[in-house]
């Protein structure tokens, strides 16, 4: 199920991250929260493919150098990577919880 959602979600990320001139956030550094959230979803959906998807947060931010009205930002790239990692970890935790595995060793 989540793999059927993953491909359209990656296409959505490509569109959102590479469209020219997006409106700025009224919240200071609000764009960092958006980057964190959108890549957390990617990490959650693609947790089993994380090795192949981990370059995507870096590549998408780097491609913004070539998009009119967009700028490259190391802070955005960091938010992308942190969000991706949190999504993967949350996905693994959720997967283990569903399988009845305990994260804490009791005994």
Would you write up a description of this structure?
The protein is mainly alpha-helical and 107 residues long. The protein has a domain at 2-12 and 31-91. The protein contains five helices and no strands. The chain has helices at 2-18, 30-45, 50-53, 55-63, 74-98. The longest helix has 25 residues, at 74-98. The radius of gyration is 16 Å and the shape is globular. It starts with a helix and ends in a 9-residue tail after the last helix. The mean pLDDT is 88.
Per DSSP E runs of 2 or more residues, the count of β-strands stands at 0
Beta-strand proportion: under 5%
Overall spatial form: globular
Order of helices and strands: HHHHH
Q: Note the total helix count.
A: 5
Overall pLDDT metric? 88
The biggest sheet amounts to: none
Distance between the termini: 36 Å
Radius of gyration: 16 Å
- Fraction of residues in helices? 55-70%
> Which blocks of ≥5 consecutive residues have pLDDT under 50?
none
Structural class comes to mainly alpha
Protein name: VanZ-like domain-containing protein
Domain VanZ-like: 30-91
Transmembrane segments: 74-93
Keywords: Membrane, Transmembrane, Transmembrane helix
